[in-house]
Write a structure and sequence with these properties.
single chain; 310 residues; mainly beta; 4-stranded antiparallel sheet; 46% strand
């Protein structure tokens, strides 16, 4: 009789344990499915129209704060906290207007100043703003990209003539012209292994790739993708080298493989996405600036952005 009771209690405990495991397994599977369902689904991150129609940038610091140009007025930089609260960060010197933003290895903010023909540098502690590089012959430094060794590249479009150039800024702070006679160069990015430079031409709708060496010299130019319609603006890569391209006028972000193969298209809440950056706690949140509503969208991705640092 006692043995029967013990056996019964053992079976009951076993059934409870199996049920608990099954329940936990179901919860885990449900959580994974929910995360997968949320991937590449865009939603507003800010919604108060706090930025002008020149909203651009963006870049994320090590604490997860997002920095975006033209907060309230042209010639400013706004700071957006991880929970979406925006405020004025700095006002740029008179005559300067920001566009693309990047952080270098020292944590300093670099800004493409298209009206001042500069790349500006912001000390994140003192908030002191200085000219990192200047050249009178630039049309307008539009977007910038940066290698791990802090060599900078700038796209330089001439919108009136539908032409453009590519420049390099070395560690000496000097602009060097890499290529002229291009289309309207706009988005620019460096691959995770620092061996490829990507540049797009907005009007011509081309995405180009170049071989890149440690000194920031380019070679072996090749066309990897052409879109049939609408323009392009900023670009960023993830740690696998997949390229995220904002489709200005179409209201989407397109994901391309490192070789330019079309992988995915993500719909935004506005029609004029201007640029993109990665952040969040794990680098897997994409932030997209939207010029038609002065706001920022976000969506989850599978891999962290290349520039993400824990």
């Amino acid at each position: 009789m006692i043995r029967s009771i013990v056996n019964h209690m053992f079976l009951l405990a076993l059934l409870v344990a199996v049920g608990a495991c099954s329940s936990n397994s179901s919860k885990t599977e449900s959580k994974e499915m929910k995360t997968e369902e949320n991937l590449y689904v865009s939603q507003p991150f800010t919604s108060n129209n706090e930025f002008t129609g020149g909203i651009e940038g963006p870049a994320v610091d090590k604490d997860g704060n997002l920095y975006v140009v033209n907060f309230g007025n042209e010639g400013t930089i706004g700071k957006v906290t991880p929970d979406g609260k925006a405020s004025l960060f700095v006002t740029l010197p008179e005559g300067s207007t920001g566009n693309g933003i990047r952080f270098n290895s020292k944590g300093e903010m670099l800004i493409a100043d298209y009206t001042g023909h500069n790349v500006l540098k912001v000390d994140m502690k003192s908030l002191e703003i200085s000219v990192y590089a200047h050249h009178d012959e630039l049309n307008q430094p539009n977007d910038i990209a940066i290698m791990d060794n802090d060599i900078v590249f700038a796209s330089d479009p001439n919108w009136k003539e539908s032409t453009g150039q590519i420049w390099r800024v070395g560690l000496d702070g000097q602009f060097v012209l890499l290529e002229a006679d291009m289309g309207t160069t706009n988005g620019i990015e460096v691959s995770p292994d620092n061996k490829t430079l990507y540049v797009n031409e907005s009007v011509q709708r081309n995405v180009w790739a170049y071989d890149l060496n440690e000194a920031g010299e380019i070679s072996n130019k090749r066309l990897i993708h052409t879109f049939e319609d609408f323009g392009m603006d900023g670009m960023r890569v993830d740690v696998d080298g997949d390229l995220y391209v904002t489709r200005h006028g179409k209201g989407t972000v397109v994901k391309l493989s490192p070789e330019g193969e079309f992988l995915k298209e993500i719909k935004m809440s506005g029609e004029k996405p201007s640029n993109i950056a990665f952040g969040g706690v794990d680098g897997k949140t994409a932030y997209v600036t939207l010029q038609d509503n002065g706001n920022i969208d976000s969506f989850l991705v599978e891999k962290p952005g290349r520039a993400f640092r824990k």
